[in-house]
Every structure is written in C-alpha cells, then in structure tokens.
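Review form for a predicted model. The reviewer records the input and the model, then writes brief findings.
Reviewer: anonymous (R2)
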Amino acid sequence: MTIELWSVDLDDVATRPEVLRALSSTDLSLGGRLGTETLRRRFSARRAATRHLLARSTGLPLDELQIVRRCSVCGARDHGRPQIIGMPIEFSVSSSGGRAVVAIACTRVGVDIEITDARMAFAPDLPQTVLAGEESALLDSLPDIDRAGTRLQMWVAKEAVLKADGRGLSVDPRRVDTSGVVTSGVGRVSLDGAIWTVQSVIPASLVGPGLMAAVAEAGSAPSPSALRGRRF
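Model under review:
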C-alpha cells in the first residue's frame, strides 16, 4: 500500500485562477470568515489544491466531487474528518504558514506538518499541556540540545493520529502516547481500542524543506505503507 504526500506551495496556488475556480460555495463562505487577507488567501489555495488532487486520484470531474465533513463530537458539518462521498479514498490535509501537505490513501490517514523554524518558540509549552507521562520521561532523559526537536516530533505525531481518528483536539492529547514512535521514527499508537501506525521521520524530499511531518494510518500491519512524495 502507498500513501501519496502532495506538497503544496499555498502562495503560489493563490495566484493561479485556473486552480481557484475549483472552490465550492462552502469553501468561499468559510474562507471569508477568516481574519486576515493572508489567511483567507491561503485557506482558499489549500481547499482548491485539495479538490484538484482528489479529482485526479478518484477520476471524478471537479463538479462531481463531493466532500463532506461531520464532527463526530458536536455533529457540526463545517469541520470534522473530511470524506469523499461514494469513493474508497481517504485523505488528510495539514498546513503551516504558506506550506501544505495533502495525504491520500486507501485507508484512514492523518497528516500533520510544522515549520521547523518555529519549533523553539512553540515546543517548551508542550510538557505541561499535551504530553503523556512516558513522553515527559523520555524528554527528561535527553540532552538539552535534542529536546525541542523531539517535543515537536511528538506534537506532529499526536496531531496526525488525532486527525486520522477524526476527533482532533477534542481528545486530550495526553492520551496519545508517541514515545515509542519518536524513538525509532515509526511505531504504533493505541487510542480507544483503535491502533494507528505512525511514521514521524519523513524526509524533506517527500514533503519539502524546512518541515517536520508525521503520517498516521489505520491498523498495525508488520510494515507501514510506503510514502510517495509529489509536488502540486
């Protein structure tokens, strides 16, 4: 099995009207609620690029591609795990700054990315807010120079699992123990009876430079799915 990882330059896509024409009325409405022009532009670019990639993967015309979202916690339809009506394709999208990655697979999948330049400012807050006891113990055992990067690696792995699960941060992140994942770069995470296989060391050749990324997929196969990086 292969998981496709599409790297997207959102600021580039935002200048391509032939791509932006794919936006649905829902996309336009949601994007219009965001507070700054940069956020609105990048949101529209992410949604439009995702629709093009899914149309390509499913073989459906853009105007026949139906994506629905429904939050499994509150029931709202403007957020939650996205699904394509009538197609056995799963996908997940993550963005950080002007970059995005779209993961497409035949099994439930979650992806998360973070720009690594921001990790020193963000990572020190993690032990008090989102880390499991095993993760905190692992960090305490590391040299200071390695802790910030490992914290961020834990965070993107948690986010990938929670996106694949579909409930996102309505689940306490401390319940997602990634200590075994970050130690070897790949491992299993259990959450409410489900098992997720997580890859947390993903080469820049697959997702683009300057990013830390993680991918979670359903199940506990002996080997994780192969990752194939592509550029939109």
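Findings: The two ends are 21 Å apart (CA to CA).
Further findings: The chain has a mean pLDDT of 91.
Recommendation: see findings above.
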